[in-house]
Amino acid sequence: MKIDIQSVSKRYGQLWALKDLTLQVEASRCLALIGPSGGGKSTTLRLLAGLEKPDEGSLSINGNRLPIEANPLREYRKTIGVVFQAYNLFPHLDAVSNITLPLEVVHGLSQTEAHERAYALLERFQLTEHGAKKPAELSGGQNQRVAIARALAPQPEFLLFDEPTSALDPEMTAEVLDVIESLIQEGKRIIIVTHQMGFAKRAAETIALIANGCVEELAGAEELFSNPRSEVTQRFLAKALNY
Predict the structure, then answer these.
(1) Number of domains the chain is built from
(2) How far apart are CA 27 and CA 231, in angstroms?
(3) Residues 23, 185: contact at Cβ < 8 Å?
(4) Distance of CA 103 to the CA centre of its chain
(5) Domain range spanning residue 141?
(6) Single pTM value for the model
(7) In the chain, how long is the greatest CA-to-CA distance?
(8) Which tens digit of pLDDT belongs to each residue from 65-119?
(9) CB contact set of 169 (below 8 Å; sequence gap of 6+)
């Protein structure tokens, strides 16, 4: 996966969430975005997901510039899968329907094909017996696995995860991270915002540390953790890893 973000800025009111952010990744199966809270990680991910538009600059993935017009942007969103920290499941629908509804309404699959994909994914993530349950009847880890199944169902070109474990306890966190690691090992292309440093070091090929609205450091996972160059990175890792 090739990513090229050039001089991107994004402002919310008087607050600059990103200021002249540039990020170039030539080839990476998994890119992890790490850094302090409020530094701009999730905004960067939302721009890559086409959920926000930059005020300045441009973004390209695999050589294709992300559109800003409504219709092309809508088509682009169909090619990716996004998993949010709060699941964003429809509370009034059961697990199966949360997966099948986008397939039928957005992607134009038949009801039969949508259900075949949904049940195959529920079986894969050990959720078959929970297909008829609504989000309120499921644990946090189960809800996040349903959300991942929903993101995978359209067979996207790549997946984006925005702090997928921040609302989970340690046991459920490990459960969800195991699922994401299995996807990486299968060759799925992933961009993930995470505060799980052990996971980032173990699973990501490339890591970008984003702070103060810009990229402070970009390196391979082993290099960044063993020999951080930026003072900002050094301070962040000292706090995050407690050394």
Answers:
(1) 2
(2) 26
(3) no
(4) 20
(5) 92-156
(6) 0.94
(7) 55
(8) 999 898 999 999 999 999 998 899 999 999 999 999 999 999 999 999 999 999 9
(9) 140
